[in-house]
Design brief:
The chain is mainly α and about 250 residues long. The chain has twelve helices and no strands.
């Protein structure tokens, strides 16, 4: 388990940790199952920063942008990079091999740039309203719910699109019952957070469900176009799940 913690924290955050001594399928499985809880820790940190910024007089929109900046810095922009690369690959209209090669390149294409900007705009605008309506107490749950994309995308039914890279290391490593249990535990945390915010437990469950739907759709598209998942696809799934959860928190009846 120690290696799994090191892999999860070292991969999903910029926090300096000792590299794992062994990275096998069990370590990969446990690291992906820990991903939502690493996200919860990041979300709790974001909620503290958001509360402090609010106390200093920052508007909810400014706080929302600060939270997104914090999450980007704390994760080294890993998920945002994956979103942009995946959009470039899928948007190229080319076959799987060419699309995967486009995703491997470090340059940012117009489709990836547009997807990145638009997704961040949606996240910032929705987070502005979430903070106005519920306050920062729900941030931990929202970030944890978005990281549920990782164990869900790495269930044993989802293949890797290529033989190397992060995607190949973790693809198919998580048994479906374990992913379901992870979802239920995070949903319980989200239900409690939204209850504290006065929205009721159903709001937290709906946020997690929205992220699950976004992740499932992402996997479906990438399996059809690429043959499976990559590390970039995992990052894209996290960002799209976060956007879906935020929109759900905003659009559901108050």
């Amino acid at each position: 388990m120690r290696d799994a913690v090191r892999l999860a924290v070292g991969t999903l955050t910029r926090w300096p940790v000792t590299p794992p001594t062994t990275v096998d399928r069990r370590t990969a499985r446990d690291a992906m199952l820990l991903a939502p809880w690493v996200g919860l820790a990041l979300g709790v940190l974001a909620s503290v920063i958001a509360w402090l910024a609010g106390q200093l007089g920052a508007s909810p929109l400014v706080v929302a942008v600060l939270v997104l900046v914090l999450l980007a810095l704390a994760t080294r922009g890993l998920h945002l990079d994956g979103l942009a690369d995946t959009a470039d690959g899928l948007g190229s209209g080319r076959g799987a091999a060419d699309a995967l090669e486009i995703m491997r390149r470090s340059d940012l294409g117009p489709i990836g740039a547009a997807t990145l900007v638009l997704t961040l705009m949606v996240q910032a605008a929705a987070l502005d309203q979430v903070l106005t309506r519920h306050g920062p107490v729900v941030l931990g749950a929202l970030v944890a719910a978005s990281r549920l994309a990782l164990p869900v995308a790495c269930t044993t039914t989802v293949p890797a699109a290529r033989s190397g890279g992060l995607g190949a290391a973790v693809a198919g490593s998580v048994p479906l019952p374990a992913a379901v249990l992870d979802f239920l535990l995070v949903a319980a945390v989200a239900a409690g957070a939204f209850t504290l915010a006065g929205a009721g437990p159903l709001a937290g469950v709906q946020v997690c469900a929205a992220g699950l739907i976004a992740t499932t759709l992402t996997i479906r598209v990438t399996r059809r176009r690429l043959g499976g998942i990559t590390g970039d696809v995992l990052g894209a799934a996290v960002e799209l799940a976060l956007a879906a959860g935020l929109l759900t928190a905003v659009l559901r009846p108050a």
